[in-house]
Amino acid sequence: MPADPLNSTSRRAVEVRRSTRRRRTVSAYREGDRTVVLLPARMTADEEARWVGVMLDKLAAQESRRMLDDSDLARRAAALSEQYLDGHARPASVRWVTNQNTRWGSCTPAEGSIRLSHRLQGMPEYVIDYVLLHELSHLLVPGHGPRFWRLLEAYPRTERARGYLEGVAAAERLPHQPVAGEDPAPVPEEGPDSVTGEGPGRS
């Protein structure tokens, strides 16, 4: 999968460091131009792949909460349009709104306006980028026909972002019931650029 230059995570190399002293916790932080993920030494390769993905998403979500305001959205929309739509989609305004609880985004082609639900705030940047690109494409093509989806084919994380949003929507429809063996949700450590979580329980 090609790297997405608009995503800060994809620009950084990932270094995994294992420790025999680490039993359950998984941590990640930025170190210059790379991301360091700290894992228990006993983790399997599959567990490592899963937790690296989880921690990268957590860091990206943490950064998007800090950084993206309306002006950031407008800049990202312009960059996405240039990269994936040859600059043809040119919104007059892009902003967060708090009155969209059943849609992730919307646009009014006649006005050139794009609105993103505040519920996206704190989600990984690639998810926000996907919703932005989705609405930018609607400025060019109404509806969700084949021509519309062809515009989104160039974005390498379309399916991953759609899966993420579908998972969030499904979770919101049902009260959360913890299941046996469920991993606790990662909890931020102190400091702006570090996150931590609980890995598989092993003695």
Automatic annotation (TrEMBL):
> Which CDD domains did the record assign?
M48_yhfN_like
Residues annotated as domain YgjP-like metallopeptidase: 82-165
Q: Where is this region: Disordered?
A: 172-203
Q: What is this protein called?
A: YgjP-like metallopeptidase domain-containing protein
Originating species: Streptomyces qinglanensis
